[in-house]
Design goal:
- The chain is of the alpha+beta class and 109 residues long.
- It is built from 4 helices and 4 strands; from the N terminus they run βααβαββα.
- It has 2 domains: 70 residues, Glutaredoxin (3-Layer(aba) Sandwich), CATH 3.40.30.10; 38 residues.
- A hairpin with a 5-residue loop joins strand 3 and strand 4.
- It starts with a strand and ends with a helix.
């Protein structure tokens, strides 16, 4: 089983609006204007969050976010054929990792 994080839109860019927790944690990024800026912001986020599994970056046209409605964050389980077999409610408060674990266990039965 493979796990990927996909960086989509910057949730709280400094040029739009800011959360106090981002200021406190020094997570301050402007909206990326091109692919290279988006990759750089994504890399900084992955380092700061300590993500230990592969991460991908959505294109500037936000194709992945549009197809999967990943904003602000969401967990998906996709089978080998590319079919979505489980998705959580939007996060950060709308999903329960235990629900994903149960869905994953169902794959092995």
């Amino acid at each position: 089983m493979d796990f990927y994080a996909i960086y989509i839109l910057e949730a709280h860019p400094t040029d739009v609006w800011q959360m106090q927790s981002n200021v406190r944690d020094n997570v301050l990024f402007a909206t990326p204007k091109n692919d290279l800026e988006r990759v750089n912001v994504a890399n900084a986020c992955w380092r700061k969050l300590g993500i230990k599994f592969p991460a991908l970056v959505d294109s500037m046209d936000n194709r992945v976010e549009g197809a999967y409605t990943g904003w602000p964050d969401r967990l998906y389980l996709i089978d080998r054929g590319g079919r979505v077999i489980f998705k959580t409610k939007p996060g950060p408060f709308g999903f329960d990792p235990d629900e994903l674990a149960k869905a994953m266990q169902g794959l092995h039965q």
